């Protein structure tokens, strides 16, 4: 389907910024496509404990650009010499205070986003982990990206997590744990 410009009666002012919405969209896309591209790989996952018969996952709350708190899965960059598994265990410990052991891989998320100065292709490895100890806290988050950490029932993750791709990982974890969502 092609979009044709809607004719404007003569004397109709041009939208603010001097361009139509379509022209602004096309210009914005053109700028983004000329930005340098960088690749990032991260790792994290769903660390689970059983509390009073309920499977709960350690999650973090971060502020989005609009200032709204969004619940996310803990994750972060893989450092030099780390495997995705080692990075997942480290990131969960740093961002949530929870020491965990990997049970199995959950899946990989692959997406793009545009920053101020570059386009980023991001790959995130997710694992299902069993919580072994620790106290849930964001005190040890070296980047101070997480504002709060809390246990969320696994059956509620699909409605609590901010991002659709993380909700898919939560659904995979729930299926593996035989939790009804």
Set down the secondary structure blueprint.
Layout: H1 21-33, E1 37-51, E2 54-63, E3 69-72, E4 75-77, H2 84-96, E5 98-114, E6 119-134, E7 148-153, H3 157-160, H4 164-177
Parallel strand pairs: 1-6
Antiparallel strand pairs: 1-2, 1-4, 2-3, 2-7, 5-6
Q: Can you offer a commentary on this structure?
A:
The chain is an alpha+beta fold and 181 residues long. The protein has a single domain (37-177), classed as Nucleoside Triphosphate Pyrophosphohydrolase (Alpha-Beta Complex), CATH 3.90.79. 24% of the residues lie in helices and 39% in strands. Strands 1, 2, 3, 4, 5, 6 and 7 form a 7-stranded mixed β-sheet that branches. The chain starts with 20 loop residues before the first helix and ends with a helix. Mean pLDDT is 86; it is low at 1-15 and 24-29.
| Assigned CATH class | Alpha Beta
Poorly predicted regions: 1-15, 24-29
Q: How many domains in all? A: 1
Q: How can the largest sheet be summarized? A: 7 strands, mixed
User: What structural class is derived from the secondary structure elements?
Assistant: alpha+beta
- SSE arrangement, N to C: HEEEEHEEEHH
Write a concise synopsis of the structure shown:
By secondary structure, this protein is of the alpha+beta class. The protein has a single domain (37-177), classed as Nucleoside Triphosphate Pyrophosphohydrolase, CATH 3.90.79.10. Helix content is 24%, strand content 39%.
């Amino acid at each position: 389907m092609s979009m044709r410009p809607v004719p404007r009666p003569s004397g109709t002012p041009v939208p603010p910024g001097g361009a139509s919405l379509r022209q602004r969209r096309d210009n914005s896309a053109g700028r983004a496509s000329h930005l340098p591209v960088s690749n990032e790989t991260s790792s994290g996952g769903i660390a689970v404990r059983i509390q009073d018969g309920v499977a709960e996952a350690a999650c973090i709350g971060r502020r989005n650009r609009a200032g709204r708190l969004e619940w996310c899965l803990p994750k972060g960059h893989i450092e030099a010499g780390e495997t995705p598994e080692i990075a997942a265990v480290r990131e969960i410990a740093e961002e949530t205070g929870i020491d965990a052991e990997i049970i199995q891989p959950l899946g990989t998320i692959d997406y793009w986003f545009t920053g101020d100065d570059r386009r980023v292709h991001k790959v995130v490895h997710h694992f299902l982990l069993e919580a072994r100890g620790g106290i849930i806290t964001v005190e040890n988050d070296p980047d101070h990206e997480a504002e709060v950490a809390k246990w969320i029932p696994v059956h509620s993750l699909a409605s609590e997590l901010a991002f659709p791709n993380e909700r898919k990982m939560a659904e995979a974890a729930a299926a593996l744990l035989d939790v009804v969502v």
